[in-house]
Amino acid sequence: MPALTLAEIKTFLRVDSDAEDALLTAQMTAAQSFIGGKISKTRHVTKDESGEPTYEDIASDELYKHAVKLLVAHWYENRAVETVGNKTLNKISFTVEAIITHIETCGDYV
């Protein structure tokens, strides 16, 4: 299973043009680095047809990819540090934090 692609990010965000490809690529790379820095796991454990464990790079795991997509979406939609008006600092969504915690604590990742 391949790692996350720019095309997957653009589909998730419903972005049709190529005008922001450089930004999205940078945000995708940053999101992967951010999540990688918060977790110590690098591989996802699955089982093959015989029930034996197999180890795949975490970048190919759908849950990891979803966390990256959500984080990129958050950064793409909230490009400022502060929200205009009420000056509330933007935070990473609870969903991304929950996925990161799950990956870090679940036995399906090593």
Summarize the structure.
The protein is mostly helical and 110 residues long. The chain has helices spanning 6-13, 21-38, 62-77, 94-105, and strands spanning 43-47, 53-57.
Q: How many structural domains?
A: 1
According to CATH, the fold-level topology is: Hypothetical protein yqbg
CATH class: Mainly Alpha
What is the helix fraction of residues, given as a range? 40-55%
Derived from helix and strand composition plus strand pairing, the structural class reads mainly alpha
How many angstroms does the end-to-end distance come to?
18 Å
Number of helices: 4
Q: Let me know the largest β-sheet.
A: 2 strands, antiparallel
Contiguous runs where pLDDT drops below 50 for at least 5 residues: none
Name the shape in a single word. globular
> At CATH's second level, what is the architecture?
Orthogonal Bundle
Protein name: Phage gp6-like head-tail connector protein
Organism: Cloacibacillus porcorum
InterPro entries: Phage_gp6-like_head-tail, Phage_HK97_gp6-like
Give an overview in words.
The chain is built from 4 helices and 2 strands; from the N terminus they run H-H-E-E-H-H. The protein is mainly α and 110 residues long. It has one domain: Hypothetical protein yqbg, CATH 1.10.3230. Strand 1 and strand 2 form a beta hairpin. The longest helix has 18 residues. This is Phage gp6-like head-tail connector protein. InterPro entries: Phage_gp6-like_head-tail, Phage_HK97_gp6-like. It comes from Cloacibacillus porcorum.
